[in-house]
Amino acid sequence: MEHTFIYDGDCAFCSQSARFLERRVRTAAKVTPWQWADLESLGVTQEEAEAAVIWVEPGLKQAGPDAIAVLLRRAQWYWKPAGWALSLKPVSWLTWPLYRLISRNRHKLPGGTAACSLPQAERDRLAGA
Fold first, then answer.
1. Is 91:45 a contact under the CB 8 Å cutoff?
2. What does pTM read for this prediction?
């Protein structure tokens, strides 16, 4: 299994963020929307993928800001300090509430769309209508 970073490909804000990661934060990880990933082989449920970004590598699965921290630690040398800083307890206590705030409001952020605020089941229902 390779290193994989999973994000919400139906969310424009998330997709723009993933493109930034691919351009600026180079890792050996496959950065892919969860909608295109083989979640079962990665050991990730759809519910987990809908809830947060996820980092998967052999023996490790992290979500949300913890996933971002791992991605940064696996990137070029100059990103590693940011990844380690995000993992420090005082910082990590703040990152989850901040991550949830951004996640809940991603449809209001630059690049976000109304679809970003809907759960996947609702997006599927509207797409079929």
1. no
2. 0.85
